[in-house]
Write a structure and sequence with these properties.
13 helices; 2 domains; Arginase, Chain A
Amino acid sequence: MKKKSQERQADVLGTGSAGQTGLVFFPAFDWAISPSHPEREERLLYTRDQIFEEGVMDLPQIRQYQPRLADPIDIARVHFCVPDIETQATEAHRIAAGGALVIADALMKGEIKNGFALVRPPGHHAMRVVHGNRGFCNINNEPIMIEYLRQKYGLKRVAIVDTDVHHGDGTQDIYWHDPDVLFISFHQDGRTLYPGSGFTSETGGPLARGTTLNVPLPPGTTDEGILFVLDKLVLPVLEEFQPELVVNSAGQDNHYSDPLANMSFSARGYALLNEKLSPDIAVLEGGYSVETALPYVNLGIIMAMAGIDYSNLYEPDYNENNFREDPANIKRLGEIVRELSDVFQQRHELVKAARQTLGPLFQRNRHIYYDTDQISEKQEESLKICPDCPGYLFIGSEAVGPMGRHRVYCISIPLQSCPRCQREARDFYLKMRRQPPKSYDYLYLQDRAADHYRQYDYGSQKERVTHS
């Protein structure tokens, strides 16, 4: 799998992969939800100090890069930002996303063998439609990076393994209907932790069934339990899916000292997970034990990615005897592994059956709560069922919060859409614009097939166009 990824990079740019691990640091000094909020700049400052003290940055295996701003088009490929990108994505958000893009470019140019974007703010709770901040996230760094790579370098099949303790519901939403992106999330059981989702029944939209796999872990799961899931489910599924790129959505709040969760993973466990997973790119997500966990976990991930011996890496208070896995947990995890393995193996049959049994449209209604900004959103999502491609999406969204009410209508054309679906969706956008319904404030067209994005303001009757 990894060999195939490196060959893909060589095919694209006519070069082999260098032997270094690329790093980007962006602590975002000027962005915080509040001065005492757990998602603050110290999350990376302690890590940076630890890495420099250990002399890691002086090793020949490491190559440091500086972040850059993500462009508006990079964000428009992924999100419908309400009312606009500038409102939802501050400069700090754009630099965090741009840090991932810098690592992506370095990988594809063959300058590095893999890379780790240590950036904040995080992003994996930001969904396709964005009305504000939820779960500390406004825009989603990994999908922004992935869609950039797909447009610029022609990548198609990508796998995202989310190791954050919280379910990556935003990333799941963005790729729910995409059969070419495999999303695997293992996280503390949603019955016991925000955002209350990520159950085994959540396996993807009707034309992408089986490419979303969720593993709800019992509270208190240790290294043994998480590595069991990795060995028995994640690695075999990746081997069969054969992605061109593997991305680790590298949340570190499964650590035993994290104040926002109840898990028992260690720094060496994270390092071993990363060594086995061997991601092409890791992007930092959560992790809020800023002094007692993050410096050790980040160091362990960097050492594993760079091929540096981490056998002597321990937290000062770590005692292996205190972290024994409950046999009942292993039994339950074995049941989950078998269930999800079956779903993945049957994914093609499940999609075929959906095409045969569903009508021309598949609809779902959802209620989404933005915990940080206290926004309540109602969505009606419709998927055009196409016999030749993944279809296209219509999303009606209404959100109410402290800043008022916004009502938007969004049309999304996927990269893999057939010519007929592209034409239908573009024509529908023009029809909606010519005959504006009174119930919406803004109309959006996200045309990934043409890399062309439009926003129409019904109030001012002005259109904003973003394209490459």
